[in-house]
Specification:
Chain lengths: ~425, ~425, ~425, ~425
């Protein structure tokens, strides 16, 4: 049978017909080495320490995004003419959008200062990758088209909007998937209704939502808002990330001096750790496995700090994350360092701050300072003009950014630091 | 708040009250290093190559089994007196039943010939483990009680039955969980109805199902039957396992001679590979990570066979699994070896057989040759006698064992081997 | 917006595009007076006395059947050429298949000896109905085509098969819907997988299931099997029906003599009750409301038997249904009558038998004595021949007809009748 | 088996143990004639004209409310001492809270100006009802306790709060149930998490939500907000109600003069229609059936207006509902009346206004002018003080009342009235 049916916990059946060239392309891309690598990168990194079920990979999610894109294009296509090329670019673009993620995605990006989007483009454009060859086999310019799609230069622009904007297929999939997997449920919304309500403003080359879909999109934005607060910015997850960052910093400090027993000189992982340039092929050797394996090794390292931090991560003995008011004073930080040091810990690794401002998305929706193409537009009545959603919806305006700073310290000194916060910061310094 | 609420995709909320000693014990066991290790062992091993969503761990499943046990004891307890000790032993036993699993569970067990049940007992009894210390802290004999529970020597016997039998909390959880995660759906059945129908034959010290539950238990058995055929014995999964077994065999062959670049002498993994004795502490260092990491390394090994097999696994270029009649002749095997060899492959690693008889459970239910305590008993009418379910239910008798042998070969020679099977074996040799 | 989106608890969104003529036809048929009448006829009659949630109407179900047909034709159409006419006939046929149902469907049919299928045809063909006019407005021969579809004379025959056979869109919808509404869950199966597996044997003009769908169809048949046993033939439902039948029989006896206070001479209801001919327009005035209203009135009738039976139904004081062996002797019936009479009840109305043989479908699947076109065919391997499913599947052969006779009596005498059964009929006479 | 298991599409199994007196009481109340009557009153009245699946009854809902109350008391009881009496009063109160509803609930109440709450109390207190006798059989003061519970005089007050407040078991059930049945999905929220988060402020005798439950309660309030906008105040539902109100008004006008053919003098229905006093027994004879039956009869009445309005309702040929600004001028109404009259319709029956202010609940949450006991309180941090939710939550403050007036007219003149509105009322007069 020339049909590939993927069973999916969120979308049920994702069906591809290998006798259709556009579907065959998707099948070949899925089977490529670079896409298969996404099986080894978790979608939510360390979130499984908060929601133990959050063990799904970017592979599964990426298939889902491609499926949502296919549905969106089918439904849009029944109202508007959509070219075959737009469909191919949209679906392949959706499938491959996460190709450049590295081990544990966002945390590692932050520490080693790179952007997975850059790597996605690089992998797609690099002629040595299977993905590049498959894309070129279909259309010689397809890699370049995807690269411009990812940079929002592709025309028609609505395709980029479906791949990456405030209402894109990426978020549409991950809210439902992360909700299901975490069991947290906050991300549930009515996907089918949203998809049925999508329309294309052909003059503006822009997606909008027809008036009957307003409530469903409000619900989608609320789902995102809650998922941010309850999952993506969860105290325990952020504290686990703090421990990982400390461990990576410590390893980075030790390795050049040969102070760690567990070295693998010249390996892509060590190159990354030391901030050295990696080739595409080297980068593609990296995945969550490397980190997980090293953490286990480091937990038996001779360096006490590295061993301790790694063991904490391995056995889930995380830091405590305590809320502080955003404008904590210098003297507060000095006192906090003192407490940590007196507890026998090096503040460089055991006193971490977690600032909401470091997170790329806050779960809120705001039109301020944002590319207009990435915003959500809704029809204000049947056949009426479209407007940006926050102009129309009080509910959307009611979802304010949730910005809170936190300090993460070992539980051994958490009570003392909490007391300090209460003293210094008054009633607003919430301690939980 | 002294309450721990785990969110679970299958059971929704798993709630533990830390102010209650029995719940506190469960919390402490969950937080132990040995139990946290289960996060790093996938429940379904390589099944994610067939059903990409099957990425969940034994940690998540074990929590679920404990929860089902808690519900079962609560509901049973409203009809029968159940001692506090039975409850503690049942719940802790359910939680820890998978503690002894190694990397990729069943496949590795098969290659290295050990039983995870033995390791579960050893970990529970070994005074150096956190789990043992926590159990002893609650009741000095608790480790021994669990060990006897796992060996079906514990009294009352119905507690063992709930931990391990044809209708145990383990299966009750994994059918639903594997169904949800794979998206295959075949394992859905009405858990709540089954649990409500459980009763205790106090005279026989045996669980039975009251008459209103018969249909629900039939449905449960069918769920198991289909999950076996569609998931646990799926052609692609079995072929992925064949590739892994070949890779492990090749590594085992190379390592003693120092022929592999990627050696870690003295490591628990290498000890396991070489069949050397490992201590409990060494065994507990092992998890899926080790295998995943090695496979990546081996894929760049100088040995062509090891590199090829590892790359196939890494990029999901699996063997083809072809059905053969169980009684294939010597000459058939000789011809098959010939084809594989002519294709440029060493039959020792590239011609694998997969016999249904190697699988511990077939998905069918049969009372023949089985410990009576592990069978399912149902009430034949309200207040009437109980009988073993296959005596009562035609549906159960209709579920026959599904035994099929397969040969797994590289896709490069699959057509030729298929042709050979068709020639030699006639109409019954199915090729799919 | 020219789009009609029906929200459905089973299928989520049922979308019709009024700018497409074939969809416009469906919309017009839904809006017809005859179709709107189906809102007033419950899908499961008195089953709500067993499963209180079973309150859904044939309107909702019929929309669902049309939707399943649309999906089936879409998916089939991606593998086989299907004419526009076949699609129209299939979808309109699916939508209207239950149009001829009367009040409380099957029970009333049985008492007044008519077939709703005859009425469906008559309503479709009668030029005075809105449905007929709408159909003719689309295609002058459409009413006749539907009539021949319902009589299995329509070509291509596979369309009839989808409307009415062992694997038709009617059952595919009602199993899921009745499952959801009753909360009984036994009717759940994987609809999408079944639909994806449908294929057309163009040579034989016959639907079959491709090999990957075998398990899903087995599951569907089991769903049907359990729904029959647990819902459609549930003891309480059948006993409620027995009370209703007695009440109708009593009313039928009283009315000609003017003995009932609550007469509406010449009304369609009274015509039906008296077995007089009704016109199509008169028949279409009837629905569940008539029966419900009369039962309330009759509960205050001067005739004690009519008042008592109606009150029992109104307040759910039903008979007890007791299993008897199929071959109960004459003397048993004589003794039972005696008991009922001694209890102060007229056996003609208070001793009812419920024979499994009276039920049109038993939930089992048997190829014996059945039109071959109505059977289920499956492919025996990818690209292999198709065979009738019971030849292939042990599971299907294992589902045997469930035939049990019951006697229904007032609870006041139920214990005595039960004792009689136990005495006379031995161990097999189950009493529950 | 002394156990009653109700299967429920929302809550799965509702289990009652007849050997426990408090459960036995609930079973007996369910079996009473007055409670069985709720099977014949739809939960959402005419909403099935908008969401065809909305066919469920108050019987099903009331069972659900009792179940939610049982769960709430169980969970609360694990944190706080709750007396046996409070449990009995809470559960019986929850079960019976809708007992006084009449045909089509709110619409009929509005036309005939009575309150179902008054009837609930009257039925509970009237010694002639089965419900009263059952309650007194358990505790002679139970009817009075329930009456005071419904009037918020019962102590402890938290029990009343669970029966009727902004966060009560009634709403908790109906949001989920109406969501499921309509298929609209907007009312889904995480019931279990809300229930787990309930706590009792024993000093204030008041329920509050512990801090971890804040998001879940926000989600619950949003669910309510959307259900109001999308279901309970849906344009089509409101227009169906307008037609019904006109029909009832016309019947009320005709009957005293004997102008309707279909009279049933002295019947409870006619008493209600004529505004005459009915006894409890007479009131209890009324249900949806009466209205449905009369509408069918009236559709064949000699009076053209009554026949037309009834036929519109019967065949779902409803009015069009058009939004108008709240402060429409006198001259607007004069012109609208003119248009309707010129179309051949009597404005008294064919020009209806639907004011948002007529609806008891708007879906928004506001603490202004509301009994403090009915508000929602949340803990502001673990162990911190509790505050009224709108003080704490921007999301809650963001949900503003949705007040829109509408005019309902026959579709024959709808375009002309729409044009009038656009002319007179400017851009804000939305027409959809």
């Amino acid at each position: 049978m020339p049909q590939r049916n993927y069973r999916d916990p969120v979308h049920n059946i994702i069906s591809l017909d290998e006798s259709v060239p556009a579907d065959r392309l998707i099948v070949d891309l899925i089977d490529s080495a670079e896409f298969q690598r996404l099986r080894r990168i978790k979608q939510l990194g360390l979130a499984m320490y908060t929601y133990q079920g959050a063990e799904h990979s970017r592979f599964t999610h990426s298939l889902g995004v491609m499926h949502v894109m296919t549905r969106a294009l089918e439904l849009l296509g029944s109202h508007h003419p959509i070219s075959e090329e737009s469909r191919v670019v949209g679906r392949a673009g959706a499938l491959l959008h996460d190709l450049g993620h590295g081990p544990l995605s966002h945390v590692v990006e932050k520490v080693f200062r790179f952007h997975h989007e850059d790597w996605t483009r690089r992998i797609v454009l690099d002629r040595s990758t299977e993905v590049n060859q498959i894309l070129r086999g279909f259309d010689d310019q397809l890699p370049e088209k995807l690269a411009s799609l990812y940079q929002h230069n592709y025309t028609p622009a609505f395709v980029s909007q479906l791949v990456s904007s405030q209402l894109d297929c990426d978020r549409m999939d991950y809210l439902l998937r992360d909700s299901l997997m975490t069991g947290a449920k906050y991300g549930m919304y009515d996907l089918e209704w949203v998809l049925h309500a999508l329309r294309l403003d052909e003059a503006c080359d822009r997606i909008y939502v027809e008036s009957k879909g307003l409530f469903a999109v409000e619900e989608y934005l609320q789902a995102r808002y809650y998922m941010f607060r309850q999952v993506y910015f969860h105290r325990t997850l952020r504290s686990a990330e703090a421990v990982l960052i400390s461990a990576l910093n410590r390893a980075r400090f030790l390795i050049p001096d040969g102070k760690s027993r567990f070295r693998t000189p010249g390996s892509p992982f060590e190159k990354m750790l030391l901030g050295e340039e990696t080739s595409t092929a080297e980068y593609l050797q990296l995945d969550d496995t490397d980190l997980a394996f090293r953490i286990k090794e480091w937990s038996r390292d001779e360096d006490e700090i590295l061993a301790d931090l790694s063991t904490r991560l391995l056995h889930r003995r995380l830091f405590k994350a305590i809320d502080v008011d955003a404008g904590a004073s210098e003297s507060f930080w000095a006192s906090a360092e003192d407490i940590v040091r007196r507890g026998g810990f090096d503040p460089q690794y055991y006193l971490m701050t977690d600032r909401a401002a470091d997170i790329p998305y806050y779960g809120d929706y705001s039109p301020v300072g944002v590319d207009p193409k990435s915003l959500i537009y809704v029809e204000t009545g049947t056949g009426a003009a479209t407007r940006e959603i926050s102009e129309v919806s009080e509910v959307v305006r009611g979802m304010r950014a949730y910005r809170i700073d936190r300090v993460c310290v070992p539980s051994e000194v958490a009570d003392e630091v909490s007391a300090l916060i209460r003293e210094n910061l008054g009633a607003n310094g919430r301690v939980e």
